[in-house]
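Look at one record.

>
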Amino acid sequence: MASAAPGQSGSAAPLALQRGIVKMVLSGCAIIVRGQPRGGPPPERQINLSNIRAGNLARRAAAGQPDAKDTPDEPWGFPAREFLRKKLIGKEVCFTVEYKTPQGREYGMVYLGKDTTGENIAESLVAEGLASRREGIRANNPEQNRLAELEDQAKVAKKGMWSEGTGSHTVRDLKYTIENPRHFVDSMHQKPVNAIIEHVRDGSVVRALLLPDYYLVTVMLSGIKCPTFKREADGTETPEPFAAEAKFFTESRLLQRDVQIVLESCHNQNILGTILHPNGNITELLLKEGFARCVDWSIAVYTRGAEKLRAAERHAKERKLRIWRDYVAPTANLDQKDKQFVAKVMQVLNADAIVVKLNSGDYKTIHLSSIRPPRLEGEGTQVNVTVDYIRPASTATETVPAFSERTCATVAIGGINIAEALVSKGLATVIRYRQDDDQRSSHYDELLAAEARAIKNGKGLHSKKEVPIHRVADISGDTQKAKQFLPFLQRAGRSEAVVEYVFSGSRLKLYMPKETCLITFLLAGIECPRGARNLPGLVQEGEPFSEEATVFTKELVLQREAEVEVESMDKAGNFIGWLHIEGLNLSVALVEHALSKVHFTAERSSYYKALLSAEEAAKQKKEKVWSQCEEVPVEEVMPVLEEKERTTSYKPVFVTEITDELHFYVQDVETGTQLEKLMENMRSEIASHPPVEGSYMPRRGDYCIAKFVDGEWYRARVEKVESSARVHIFYIDYGNKETLPSTRLGTLPPAFSTRILPAQAIEYKFAFIQVPQDDDARADAVDSVVRDIQNTQCLLNVEHLGPSCPHVTLQFADSKGDVGLGLVKEGLVMVEARKEKQFQKVITEYLNAQELAKTNRLNLWRYGDFRADDADEFGYSR
């Protein structure tokens, strides 16, 4: 029963009972109650317990008042607060408001639970000797009589404030400041410290009471930052988007809870830490729910692994939760095959870029993500490339030159991240980004950690030693210097060299490390097609196959170590000789691949026989420079007249799947036996070598095998990967789709790949009809088609091509009836009017059928011709 307000008789009308959840305990006699959240942080109100008094808690002196002093706890004030905190925080209570002061302060009775049969909180405090009845209150009703009785019992039992002594042992020695925060954090040795969260400033900043020494400290969550409240000039606070929601998320889980805090670091007098609660890690939860973002400057001190935070943030980004609602991934527009691929390094450009050759034969320039390296090694090596972002082209400014579009990626050799290796050796530095700039390396945290190690150990760029200067003499084109070097190079026999540049198939620029000089080198013994040249006033075109010869030489030797034999020098100061790479003579290789002819000067060389043999073999093949230049007769091109008649060539197909958009998948009957044989062999192979459950890691676009509900394995393609438990796949031979756990997937054996037998399910769309956009009407049409033709043999004729798949007409195999025309006759679809002359006859037949369906008010037309007035509104077009 609710107690009456002071001065009222017991017969007064009962007070309204209200409910809420306890958010915070202010003291032994005051709590804050909140409602249920609905679309945002809920309303809250302060309720003071009527008729009792508990000791006040300590209060810090106001910052702007120099004469003010800190107020300590009153005896038994903190135990009373703790009694209520442990009993009420996060619990549902009911309460009555007995009276309200002119200042708006509300007093009432609070009960634990949903009604007044629950524990009376005021009575519990008095019974434990943690609160006393207010002075001057006379016991004039049952509630006050009960308080007086409980107080007398507590006095007799000498509980709490009625025990012997002054109660000074219950007064906390609060420490509001720490003289040396860094030393304090280090002294904890990253061991969990018991604490109570006293205040939540925003989602990622809290005020905590460290136990048992009562340090009151501000803790910033390591590695993350939530939206904050900006203080305006007039003292008001303006929340950033989702700041209030993030604060409530943290408050509802941590405020005045018993937690453990790992103090991890100190930054500008601010303590960084991780808060541990039995129900989870709030740092990772905030990220996963889209309430926070990772911050680079503090993520390195997070002791539970930065990769967990990045993974949680990535989870929120992929689902566009809250602060990421407008997020677009840096590589969102790239296919999976363009994001990750294996390629061969062909050339190191300058500073931070390499040229790689893809499996398709195309070349691609790749920039290393997030670093500024001076040089990279590894030409000719197979590397794994993961594209992190595409840096768009930029225009030139007064201080920054223009840049073309750059593909920035993580490049790995044998599992080693090249960028990380360079940074760890002090050969590159890590680029710093704005916090909202998501275009960075996918291994950015590892790069930062590697740089920190390099700085600590004084490696490379971070060394305090003087950097040695390497002087290289460039004698290419300098006849006098070339003459001085020639005797040394001739006597040296085979000398080490690095191919710095390829001008053409037989003209190179070499770096001679022993002599520390750059030379221009011409291949001896061959006549290579001349490349295009820019001369004053005109452009001289290259000879046939000159480009192919240049590409061949680049792929074989560019920026790779080789051996050279210098024989002579021309009048322009260019050295002439033989170049060997991995035991291969480059001159012989060019002749062997029909990209050069043997020059008469080779007769006096020891390589003459090898050159002649290679040339003879190339001549026999009649390829490239030895291909005969016969005139190709010009074919007389007959003008294609506009087709006046529709051509039909129906072929038998088996319909396997109908989609919700009324597209359908068919198998060619002629190749059906091949599919059956492949499936039989594949299942036999799988039965003898079953896939290990969980060993397959699906990736979008991969071909795999999937176990259908019938327990059999089928060929499939991965369409989307939500998680290991939800993988969207497409059965490539039947056209149906399914969502499966990865445990029901496996690697497709190469012997049964699409190269052996292409995907057998081919997608088509009905020609000459328009599918209704209304969901119910479209479902009726789909149901009709499923009943009529799914899993049956039909006859198919391609009428014309469409943007996504060919448009066809389909006939029943037995009656030769037109399936699409049947849908029009039943009023399930409309006619798509086309203007091509060859289709006018069949279009007329379709339109006549549509008019008949309208007259009979069938299905779509049961309310008449709805298209006359509101076609646009319903999404139809005539």
